[in-house]
Write a structure and sequence with these properties.
By secondary structure, the protein is α+β, with helices and mostly antiparallel strands. It is 29% helix and 24% strand. It folds into 3 domains: 42 residues, no CATH class; 110 residues, PurM-like, N-terminal domain (60s Ribosomal Protein L30, Chain: A, 2-Layer Sandwich); 166 residues, Phosphoribosyl-aminoimidazole Synthetase, Chain A, domain 2.
């Protein structure tokens, strides 16, 4: 390490970052602590070298072609869980980040960080799942890297994937395009991935097996674009769940979001598990779902196209953009009251992606 000293007191930043001089798990949760870490540490450190668009995928113009570029790192524990593995999660997660700006994925890089002592059979299983997922998504694995760390300094396998794709000419999809009146649609059941990983990790048993929803969503996005609708915003609600994603969109666009809890597609077993564990299903991660903001005139045909696709069969309208309470998400409860849907501070379920 160099002798450069860092004066924490000089940071202009709210709690809890200033009160936590060391990294804690909440900094990786996709909530308020993650946002503070990026805004008050990384962006100032990067200076003018940073492109502060802060989306899940960057849009880059090259020779008249719009390309999407994204990278993500996967540290899920356990490596294998109901419905998936860290391998297919790594492919689908990056493919979906590209899809959320309207891109068809072309190629991925894959970098493996392996812990000394991990069984080769376990690594082969993960690698095979990754290759199978890439074939299913129609994306090429074109470059990669492998590193090994000392025993006790990893957790079996960590994977980084970066991806590029070509953005559909019909797409202008970004959080800033949300406007009052937009209809908010979710493509299916909420909270499934997080509960699936947690049930496996903690040995919880339910009446039925809860399997992760990990899946590539670019085909569903193509079907939505084929309707001719102007898709304002698409996001996949991963870390921090639907709550974090909607808060980020509301803040970026300066709009309010009003939800109706009666219309949330939450499976009974997910609702029961969250009730048992004191979790909010809206803050639980998803890995095969998307949120769409569309004009009211386009909502019916977009919803019909989603429901006609296997990955959107349970799509539902869950709310609207409103001019009131900009930057805030509120939900009408089943009892007729209203509650604020906050941005999570840290992470309810660490290491789920």
């Amino acid at each position: 390490m160099s002798d450069v000293s860092i004066d924490l007191q000089s940071w202009v930043c709210p709690a809890p970052l200033r009160d936590a001089p060391n990294i804690v798990m909440g900094h990786g949760g996709g909530g308020a602590m993650s946002a503070e870490l990026i805004e008050h540490l990384f962006l100032p450190a990067y200076g003018t070298a940073a492109d502060a668009g802060l989306g899940d995928a960057a849009v880059i113009g090259l020779g008249g072609v719009r390309l999407a570029f994204s990278t993500d790192t996967f540290v899920v524990r356990p490596l294998v869980f109901p419905g998936g593995t860290i391998g297919d999660l790594a492919v689908n997660g990056t493919v979906n980040d590209l899809a959320m700006v309207g891109a068809q994925p072309l190629a991925l890089s894959t970098a493996f960080i392996l812990e000394e002592g991990t069984a080769l059979q376990d690594i082969a299983h993960v690698a095979s799942a990754l290759g199978t997922a890439a074939l299913a998504a129609g994306v090429r694995l074109v470059t990669g890297d492998t590193k090994v760390v000392d025993a006790g300094h990893g957790d079996g396998v960590f994977i980084n994937t970066a991806g590029i794709g070509v953005i559909d000419d019909r797409a202008d999809i970004r959080p800033q395009r949300a406007v009052p009146g937009d209809v908010v649609i979710v493509s299916g059941d909420i909270g499934v991935h997080g509960v699936a990983v947690l049930s496996c990790r903690e040995g919880l048993e339910f009446a039925t097996t809860i399997a992760s929803d990990t899946a590539p969503l670019h085909g569903l996005v193509s079907a939505m674009l084929d309707t001719g609708a102007d898709l304002h915003v698409l996001r996949d609600p991963t870390r921090g769940g639907v709550a974090a994603t909607l808060n980020e969109i509301a803040t970026a666009a300066g709009v309010g979001v009003a939800l109706d809890e009666r219309h949330f597609p939450i499976p009974g077993e997910v609702r029961d598990a969250c009730g048992l564990l004191g979790l909010d299903p809206l803050q639980v991660a998803n890995e095969g779902k998307l949120l769409a903001f569309v004009r009211p005139a386009d909502a019916d045909r977009v919803l019909a196209a989603m429901r006609a696709h296997p990955l959107g069969a349970h799509a539902a309208v869950i709310g609207h953009c409103v001019p009131d309470h900009p930057g805030m998400v509120v939900a009408r409860t089943a009892l007729g009251g209203t509650r604020v849907v906050d941005l999570p501070i840290g992470e309810q379920l660490p290491r789920i992606c």
